[in-house]
């Protein structure tokens, strides 16, 4: 028995039977966290045990200059985000999480335990606790979170329907390689190889990842556009970067259930199916029409989760808007000049030109901070456009966005909903 274990039993007053459960409750940590501490103590790796825990047992080692500073709420949130992304990857691949917990998830639980010991904060110290709060906005369970992370993500939810969100991915990537940028860089490298044909490849590939988030195999993707067949090597590289073979665990009775709006794989929670798209119109269509289905085979390919969350789902709003604008008789360029803006809208005989960026950010403050400015199209009328459902969720979205831009000293940007833009275009016809 190690000194750590002996002191723990003594201090906690643990009974002879089920002493670990009693000791974990006394320390305010989960059983897996306690087991990790015991494993570190058994090999003398005491520096891996939080200082606050050692203080509780009166076995605090001498402080060295290299010892880390007190953990922060920001570190806890970052660790939870990275850990949940890793946990989601395990579930996507294997259908269930595996032991032990991902290292960053364990670190997040450790930090939460330390903060709880220090000031009694009610942060999640078990995975069950975390799953219970991660679907709520950060400000509800981390009210003391401050700084840039809070400014941009104060209303972020790490989970929706027990799956990670775009915000969870974005937080996890702070200080790490940005997967959204990594995907974009791969596309741009391929476009640069093709020279003058690069814009054609860009538009074709962007449409592909929006319209075919799940493919029956390579043949379906290669057949989407003639440029893919002309440039097989480039197309292969893009497919291998963006797509992954779907594990059979996601099939139900040999079928894959798809969202009728987006074509993405559905999530079953209890007896109900949910779509990854936040827009409630997609969920209503699913509830009314039921899912689309395709047969599962080992050749089925699915967009990697970051590509779905950062490319496919936001792009669905962009393409839907293009269709609506064209129905009004306007011409639309989609993703011109390699996506300098999402849409350029014009009409022959009409002097007005519009440049539009479509943004699906749940947080108005986050959008105000992340949107830099329009870099071009100074002769156009320029708008940032958000899906209608965001203003339904937050009627003050535009007001909050405008005030946040002003407080950050950023360039003024006009913000409209999709419906407001379409109404403006109808008036501009006259």
From TrEMBL:
Organism ancestry: Bacteria, Pseudomonadati, Pseudomonadota, Betaproteobacteria, Burkholderiales
Cited InterPro entries: pPIWI_RE_REase, pPIWI_RE_Y
Residue ranges annotated for the REase associating with pPIWI RE domain, each copy included: 315-427
pPIWI-RE three-gene island domain residues: 83-215
Entry protein name: Uncharacterized protein
